[in-house]
Amino acid sequence: MLPFGLTSGAILDKLYPLYYPPSLTGLRGSHPGSHTHSHARAWDKKSDWGPTTELKETYDLVVVGGGISGLATAYFYQQKHGKDKKVLILDNHDDFGGHAKRNEHTVDGKLRLAHGGSQSIVEPKHGSEIVHALLKDIGVDIKRFDTAYDRDFYKRNNLGAVTYFNKETFGEDKVVKHPYCNYPNYVEGIVMGGKLSNEEAAQQAPLSEKGKDQLLRVLNGGLHVIDVPEEEMEDYIDSTSYFDYLKNNLGVDDPGILKMARNSGLDWELTGTDLMTIGTAKSCGALGFTPKAVYDEDNPYIYHFPDGNASVARALVKKMISDVAEGNNAEELVLSKFNYAELDKARNAVRIRLNSTVVNVRHGGDPKNSSEVFVNYINDNKSHQVKGKSVVMACYNMMIPHIVSGLPEEQAAALRLQNKSPLQYTTVGLRNWRAMKEMEIGLAMSPGNMHQVVFMDFPVSIGGYEYTKTPDDPCIVHMINCPYGETIGAPALEQYREARYKMLGLQFKDYEDEIRAHFNGMLPQELFDFDRDVESITVNRWAHGYTVGGPEGSVKKGRQPFGRITIANCDSGPSADAKTAIDMASRAVNELG
Ligand SMILES: Cc1cc2nc3c(=O)[nH]c(=O)nc-3n(C[C@H](O)[C@H](O)[C@H](O)COP(=O)(O)OP(=O)(O)OC[C@H]3O[C@@H](n4cnc5c(N)ncnc54)[C@H](O)[C@@H]3O)c2cc1C
Predict the structure, then answer these.
(1) What residue owns the CA closest to ligand 1's atom 27?
(2) Is pTM beyond 0.70 here?
(3) d(CA 130, CA 577)
(4) Is the pLDDT score of 197 beyond 50?
């Protein structure tokens, strides 16, 4: 049960300011209850939702899904058809933005912002004209990050890329000042290893003597150890498993090294490196491959608001519902507290209705010439119906066949093949970061832990928000869990499913215990006390996280228009990218005619 059903602005007026989801901590992301009705529909084929209230609300457009794509859909629709057009956006979560989620922590009275999902605008300069025009219009000025992002922060504080080996897996708790892989290199300005030679790094790893020899072979590795004619090399590395290369060419059998290797690509390619070819592992800088720049010089990884791409979502909402907050552009909105009571006011041209899971969408007649579409959703365990002249599905593509009635079977089958990988971003409000500074931790690879990465929040000051300045100040530490299945080499979809269920089966206490053990093992006890220094924890679980896409051809087949219904979402790209979410929204609106 969710705390409140968001049924009307009037109720929210009374509850506000109590209703302010960004400040909730604990289990967030796809929070408990958010998928209850979707799962009942998809897994149990539930179709009887009790008596339905016909709301007598008719919209020009109903959008299913309030992530960046759904919000952009409403924006493009109004751009094309006029600001007076009535649009309703329905989302199953208690906040808008989908993966673009804002986490707020208040530590010792100071507000600390964090991203609970979608992190940064990736390679904005490679974005389409559509993306650039939208960002400009909603007041996102990417040039601001040239100065807002403090590239000198890590260097000034001597914060580097390190590895934390935990006792449970490696026999002792130890931090070695070397990342052993390229992963941390995407954090602009982080101090990448380099202080230790390969020999020293291998020696310092808590492995047996044999294991240290093997690790040194991997670090010194290089593809020259492969006995294949030069002209066949490219094909070979693109078709041979990275794990086979480690085992057969480099003679690795130490389970600790294989664990380091498996976790070294993290989320770059949506799977552990056990499923990568040598070529893919090389391109994402897995264990043993030389550090190299992750992004091109024109697109450094600096386009990060303090709450990540939640700022893009908020700027879109503000553009369409002007009374929701004060501020004229994304920068001015950074510290602006949104009034959620404004989201669903009857007077708005665009209304956003949260905590509302859509369970059925059907045309009023033959889809070829129907002029109305009925949309049923569950809010506060009750069934409601609204009508739209058109509908855009901006929710997860694989969910669409369970919701849209009468889809052609071929299209439904294609949509069912679209997939998403699970991912978890945990944000921790710390009272100070003296212990992190002492250990010189900017980012710690943590191959033995649930969160394979821990890092200091990105150093961005913008819109009056100041990132943490000195080690005595409160800060946010981010933790990333890219969960894999137990069985090394098992097919990706099996691993996603297994990891997703495991993730959802855990309680907050399980996560807290894990985080406690992680911090206690990694940080010196004389400088760090978990109960004293950790103020708040927000575990953002995204059981349906990164877009994976289906087999060749299935994406386009799945996203075709169906009568008055078209399909947006970054799954239609397919690409786990905010730019794609925007492009797909534009496409879906244009397909409506
Ligand atoms: C942890 C994480 C980090 C990421 N980091 C980045 C990043 O740094 N940069 C980047 O560009 N991209 C990133 N992404 C990718 C991200 O998915 C996209 O950038 C973008 O935010 C997706 O927007 P969307 O609207 O297409 O989908 P979503 O954000 O998934 O929005 C779809 C919404 O529809 C809702 N929905 C689903 N079913 C229903 C239903 N039946 N009824 C009502 N609502 C429903 C969903 O719950 C969701 O709220 C990240 C993703 C994750 C999970």
Answers:
(1) 67
(2) yes
(3) 14
(4) yes
